Amino acid sequence: MIEPAALDIVSIERAPAGLLDDESLSWLEALRDPGARRDAAIRDLHALLLRAARFQVRRRRHLLPACDGAELDDLAEHAADDATMAVLKRVESYEGRSRFTTWAYKFAIMHAAVAVRRAAWQHREIPIEPADWPFVSDNAGPAELAEHRELATALRSAIDTVLTRHQRTVLIALAVNQVPVDVLAERLSTSRGAVYKTLHDARAKLRQELAAVGFLPGIAERLHD
């Protein structure tokens, strides 16, 4: 449980009163109070987000077959801590388009999902080679099958020759082996945004290379988007 006293006071810009329900206004007013009322509001917020995080973790427990109830509760607790901090840092962006609690729930759901994915990959290596190249349709006819195989060969060649080692690692991990982006970002000691930027650059290089060797850009985009 995070301690309210350990948090910096957050400046909250109140949304237009007409857009907020009484409960949401009460939450914002309490979180603006620099005294004991704010501390109590933070504890209540954490409890609220903990319930949401527990639900989300248990909904995804099939991804963590080796975890017992205590370990799942621990994941939910940490997710609720992170979600509470995220809400307090971003509360000034709350615009009143939904109830404050509905808006805050989204942070708990997101952080719980991230916690589960990280736990599921905790003892797994990030694959740097594709387990399979899923570029050929089993239902394709002979002509289409030949075209797909030719394109797949050109694509594999482009991945090996055009991309940097880092771009290749990111592309194969995300687009082929379905590694969660937050897990990959953590393993590479970078941000989700940086990983997405690398993936975008890698795809752009591949489209350019495939177009240069005679393949239509539209076909390449369908295979990678």
List the helices and strands and how they pair.
Layout: H1 22-32, H2 36-59, H3 69-90, H4 100-120, H5 142-161, H6 165-176, H7 181-187, H8 192-212, H9 217-224
Q: Number of helical runs?
A: 9
3D shape: elongated
Largest sheet: none
Kindly state the number of beta strands.
0
Helix-strand pattern? HHHHHHHHH
Report the portion of residues in β strands. Answer: under 5%
Mean pLDDT: 81
Percent helix range: 55-70%
Q: Residue ranges: pLDDT <50 for 5 or more in a row?
A: 2-17
Q: What does this molecule look like?
A:
The chain has about 220 residues and is mainly α. The chain has 2 domains: about 5-120, no CATH class; about 140-225, Winged helix-like DNA-binding domain superfamily/Winged helix DNA-binding domain (Arc Repressor Mutant, subunit A), CATH 1.10.10. Helix content is about 65%, strand content about 0%. It is built from 9 helices and no strands. It has helices at about 20-30, 35-60, 70-90, 100-120, 140-160, 165-175, 180-185, 190-210, 215-225. Residues about 1-15 have low confidence and may be disordered.
Key terms:
about 220 residues, mainly alpha, Arc Repressor Mutant, subunit A, 2 domains, about 0% strand, disordered N terminus
Short account of what is shown:
This protein is mainly alpha-helical and 225 residues long. It has 9 helices and no strands.
